[in-house]
Amino acid sequence: MEDPQQRPEWEDGKQRKAELTAAFETNAERATMSARLPALPGALKESFADVIRQRVEREPYWFQKIQIMPGLKTPGWSDPMMEKLPFYGLPVDLTGKRVLDIGCAEGFFSFEAEARGAREVVAIDSFPDSIRRFNIVREARQSNATAFLMNVYDLDPDRLGTFDLVLFYGVFYHLKHPQLALEAISRICVGDLLFQTYICDDPRVKDEPWAKYHPHGLMSGTGSKDFDPTVFWLFNSMACVAMLDSLGFENIETVSVDPKPFVLRARAAAKNMAASRPPNQAVAPWS
Q1: 3 by DSSP, 3-state: which?
Q2: Is residue 94 included in any domain, yes or no?
Q3: Is the pTM of this model over 0.85?
Q4: Could you tell me if residue 2 is inside a domain?
Q5: String of b and e for 216-225 (b: at least 16 CB within 10 Å)?
Q6: Is the peptide bond before 261 cis (omega within 30 degrees of 0)?
Q7: Which string of b and e fits 12-34 if b means at least 16 CB within 10 Å?
Q8: How many domains are there within the chain?
Q9: Domain range holding 129?
Q10: Cβ contacts of residue 266 below 8 Å, gap of 6+?
Q11: What CATH code is carried by the domain that includes residue 157?
Q12: Residues 143-168: pLDDT tens digits?
């Protein structure tokens, strides 16, 4: 009989992922990638506010709690206004800046950056449902922020241009290839990077770059009650600084640290500092 104490700690995650995959396979031939929501009956006769309210209520899941109109917030389980905004280092004045929000979810930080004067806000997320919910909030707020279904690895100046401020919040530990992601970010960042991630600081390696790998995810969410198969790497704080330094980022400083969220601010390498610009559409960057 196998000794439970000898089992790798990732075995529970591996089993949970197998169970979720088996459940998916039972209905895969009838499933859709994005949740199917029925049309709103009589939508053309409803007020704009009522239509938005119905669209919010019909979504099966919300991550972020966002005020989208008087008397209406999205029912997210995470409240970034209270839990994140005070600690994440977002500048008060973003007048004239191009801002990129990586892993935007429903767009709390995108819309906050816009409210602080950004001349353009571009958001990306790799989940189709996040983009749909982002667009509900965008419509309700009459926002000009734009979200694209895109992976961080695909960032390229020819596709989205360059940015004065890059927000990289809550994504790093979800990536199988974190260094590749930082390399992509370094190509489009011509100003500041705000970087937030969960960390795993071990006092035995406090002064050494170090990471812990979770091959099959781990429990996550409020109270760590939900299984998340997309959590792979937990770096210590020294490793996060070292990885940014290896790519030429400068003036790396800690904005927030335990027990608050871990946040770094860094400047693009001096050779990359320039005025931000959108892509030149005259040369067909998407062709």
Answers
A1: coil
A2: yes
A3: yes
A4: no
A5: bbbebeeeee
A6: no
A7: ebeebbeeeeeeeeeeeeeeeee
A8: 1
A9: 80-277
A10: 192, 193, 195, 244, 249, 250, 251, 252, 253
A11: 3.40.50.150
A12: 999 999 999 999 999 999 999 999 99
